[in-house]
């Protein structure tokens, strides 16, 4: 009997620099009416672009995973804002999560349980907020790094793991980030029964993913896939 596999896919899209609204506004019809309201409420063009591209990325990925047209991909939110599939698409369970910041968009897909993803730009001069959001073991891990640069990277590894956990649970910041401990050096939390995977992308962004352990004999295989911006937009024509 073939051994069961736990594949977790993380799709990464970095938008072109100085991307203008004219380049993407022709795809607004990919949004449903409720999404268009959210889109129109953004006052800053950059936020509009990121929201629209996030929905494009998500709906293209889901339509390919489910082998269906984009028009059939209907999304809803839970009380805390986590997206999930609605409608009558019967292609087996499919869990996903989306995160974006500063022109970087990440979508995680998991067929064996809930998933949380987070991406953050690795910034400087951020360590002073640690005591307010990290537990002592997490603070000590960041401080133990050899250089300030490595401490900054370690900070965002811990922080994105915390956010991925909160998003996995589907409750976001209603969960106090100091109410739980994430593994800093390992990828598995026995207490939470959760696997974590982190990637320092291009030495500029930290991406973390969290998924539940579904089988004592199976360790998830996290596969990162970089998405080409132009190919993404072209693929919409084939999936609508």
TrEMBL record:
One of its GO terms (biological process) is lysine biosynthetic process via aminoadipic acid. Pfam families: AASDHPPT_N (PF22624), ACPS (PF01648). One of its GO terms (cellular component) is cytosol. Signal peptide: none annotated. It comes from the Bacteria. Keywords: Transferase. Residues 25-104 form the 4'-phosphopantetheinyl transferase N-terminal domain. Residues 115-192 form the 4'-phosphopantetheinyl transferase domain. GO terms for molecular function: holo-[acyl-carrier-protein] synthase activity; magnesium ion binding. Belongs to the P-Pant transferase superfamily. Gsp/Sfp/HetI/AcpT family. PANTHER family: L-AMINOADIPATE-SEMIALDEHYDE DEHYDROGENASE-PHOSPHOPANTETHEINYL TRANSFERASE, PHOSPHOPANTETHEINE TRANSFERASE. This is 4'-phosphopantetheinyl transferase superfamily protein.
């Amino acid at each position: 009997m073939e051994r069961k596999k736990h594949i977790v896919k993380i799709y990464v899209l970095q938008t072109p620099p100085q991307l203008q609204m004219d380049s993407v506004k022709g795809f607004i019809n990919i949004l449903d009416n409720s999404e268009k309201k959210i889109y129109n409420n953004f006052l800053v063009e950059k936020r509009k672009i990121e929201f629209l591209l996030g929905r494009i990325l998500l709906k293209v990925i889901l339509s390919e995973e489910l082998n269906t047209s984009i028009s059939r991909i209907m999304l809803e939110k839970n009380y805390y804002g986590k997206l999930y599939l609605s409608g009558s698409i019967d292609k087996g369970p499919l869990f996903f999560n989306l995160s974006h910041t500063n022109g970087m968009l990440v979508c995680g897909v998991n067929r064996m349980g809930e998933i949380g993803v987070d991406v953050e730009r690795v910034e400087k001069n951020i360590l002073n907020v640690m005591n307010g959001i990290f537990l002592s073991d997490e603070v000590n891990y960041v401080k133990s790094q050899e250089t300030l640069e490595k401490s900054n990277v370690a900070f965002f590894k811990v922080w994105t793991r915390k956010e991925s956990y909160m998003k996995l649970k589907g409750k976001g910041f209603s969960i106090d980030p100091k109410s739980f401990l994430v593994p800093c050096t390992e990828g598995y939390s026995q207490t939470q029964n959760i696997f974590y995977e982190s990637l320092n992308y291009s030495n500029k962004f930290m991406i973390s993913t969290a998924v539940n352990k579904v089988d004592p004999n199976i360790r998830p295989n996290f596969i990162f896939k970089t998405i080409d911006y132009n190919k993404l937009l072209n693929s919409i024509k084939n999936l609508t």
